[in-house]
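Lecture notes, continued. The same structure-token format from the folding unit now serves as the input rather than the output. Read the line below as a description of shape only.
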């Protein structure tokens, strides 16, 4: 059983069943880049045990993203997310999965000050959650930190392009790489973190030609979100692709209507409660004879 903690099946609705399978490893993810006709890596966000259980059989990587700040906690951005939040949700996802490699975002303020600060934060994430790796935003400026962590046994996934933690500096969430200068800078950022030891690099919210150039330039997998179909893998926020929210970002394809399904079910429940049709005889306890 490859989870950090066990779940008491007598008290929990979420009762993952251990399966005789080995988790996707960081070396196996890296190896996908050089394989002929390799299938793209499938990556989705997960924040809870139950979501992890449902996604795990279909994904190579489960990302415990700092997007949980907005998706779970209703925060205006990812900036207020804390290390405690990431550790709690990272441990939950590890408990609910047996196949996918679990990667946990390092939240804003937990790694930028110095490589030593980053190591302290990353080592806590790894120890508390049982995750396989951490993810860190930033390009050339963070290359030294990426190298510091990887040399000490902590796998790092990079993240360049539109980096949400830097939204104030970027001036918003618009696509990056439209100018020649920014295009070249982002290519350089991707190369810097890959050369420093990142096992994969997320490229977010960039023009398609820029994403294609990064795929060609890097020897490690490039995972796109709002990037290009030519990337070595794709990632989306699960709640976005399932249609939980009214607003859908341009780069998201809605594969379901979770919001509509929940609304319909709750409306049905409310009608039956008000009409005293629920609970029926099937949902109440009768005295023993």
């Amino acid at each position: 059983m490859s989870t950090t903690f066990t779940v008491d099946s007598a008290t929990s609705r979420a009762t993952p069943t251990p399966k005789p399978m080995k988790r996707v490893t960081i070396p196996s993810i890296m190896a996908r880049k050089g394989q002929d006709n390799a299938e793209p890596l499938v990556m989705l966000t997960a924040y809870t045990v139950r979501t992890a259980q449902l996604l795990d059989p279909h994904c190579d990587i489960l990302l415990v993203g700092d997007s949980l700040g907005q998706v779970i906690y209703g925060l205006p951005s990812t900036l207020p997310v804390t290390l405690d939040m990431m550790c709690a949700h990272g441990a939950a996802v590890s408990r609910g999965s047996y196949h996918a490699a679990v990667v946990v975002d390092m939240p804003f303020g937990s790694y930028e000050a110095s490589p030593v600060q980053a190591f302290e934060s990353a080592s806590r994430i790894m120890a508390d959650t049982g995750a396989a790796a951490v993810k860190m935003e930033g390009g050339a400026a963070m290359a030294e930190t990426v190298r510091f962590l990887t040399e000490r046994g902590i796998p790092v996934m990079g993240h360049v392009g539109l980096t949400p933690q830097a939204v104030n500096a970027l001036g918003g969430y618009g696509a990056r790489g439209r100018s020649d200068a920014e295009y070249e800078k982002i290519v350089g950022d991707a190369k810097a973190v890959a050369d420093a030891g990142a096992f994969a690099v997320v490229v977010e919210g960039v023009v398609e030609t820029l994403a294609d150039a990064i795929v060609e330039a890097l020897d490690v997998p490039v995972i796109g979100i709002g990037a290009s179909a030519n990337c070595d893998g794709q990632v989306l926020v699960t709640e976005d692709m399932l249609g939980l929210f009214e607003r859908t970002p341009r780069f998201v394809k809605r594969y379901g209507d979770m919001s509509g399904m929940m609304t319909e079910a709750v409306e049905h429940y409310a009608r039956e409660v008000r009409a005293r049709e629920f609970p029926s005889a099937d949902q109440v306890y009768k005295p023993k004879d």
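Point for the exam: The first helix runs from residue 26 to 31.
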